Amino acid sequence: MSQRTGRAALARHAAVAGGEVAAELFRTDVAVETKSQKTDVVTEADRAAQRRVEEIIAAEYPDEALVGEEEDALKTIPDGTAWIVDPIDGTNNYVRELRTWATAVACVEDGEPVAAANALPALDDVYTADDDGTYRNGHEVSVAETTDPERAAVVPTVWWPMDRRDEYARACEAIVERFADLRRPGSAQAALAELAAGSTAGVITNVQTNPWDTIAGVHLVRQAGGRVTDLEGARWRHNSRGLVASNGHLHDDVLAAARTIDG
């Protein structure tokens, strides 16, 4: 087994284990706290799931950096090898007892993802990506072959705060004017996983995203044959502003929609 193959297996193991911790508390009276704004919520399930992921990674790679959404984990990506963790991506879904939320784990080398896993335990799905491809529950998947915008669904993702709702509205308008339909699963990692598996044709935002919200899903999309850029059409990196992901065939259309969000 190559080192990268081993890292992909570890990402899957850690994501599944963290997801199991979160699943144990799903649809219970777990306390909900608010962070920076009313829609930015956190629960003990987030913290417990991240601790479980950290334990598993540290057991194999105790000297490698870990970037995570919760607690005292790093919040920016260092040089070298690092692990990126979101214990519950879609916490607003989680606290509303909706099933679409993910435990995301990715490994990066100098900021570039090399392995990823998104576990969605409430949906019984695990998405993984290694050097060879992207898989859902062990079966290889690929982006949709759709070339007609009027047959495609596109997702506006991440969250626009209350003082930026004009951008949220423009994102939705841009999609419904150009494509067959709009989807919003409420989890960026789930949205990117679904794009990688061919369920949708694009995912857009003009927001500079947190690395834990997107890196694992970006790797899933790329390894499934899709394309991910910033708003200028350059290759997306973790510090890019905006994220435009597509099946590749419709990237120009998806990029055009994303570019209207700024107004």
Structure description:
This protein is an alpha+beta fold and 263 residues long. 34% of the residues lie in helices and 24% in strands. A hairpin with a 4-residue loop joins strand 6 and strand 7 (125-129). Helix 1 (3-25) packs antiparallel against helix 2 (44-60). The protein is globular.
Short description:
This protein is α+β, with helices and mostly antiparallel strands and 263 residues long. It has helices at residues 3-25, 44-60, 91-95, 165-178, 188-196, 211-223, 251-259, and strands at 32-34, 41-43, 65-68, 81-89, 102-109, 112-120, 125-129, 134-136, 139-141, 153-156, 181-182, 202-205, 227-229, 243-246. It has two domains: 3-141, Fructose-1,6-Bisphosphatase, Chain A, domain 1, CATH 3.30.540; 149-259, D-Maltodextrin-Binding Protein, domain 2, CATH 3.40.190.
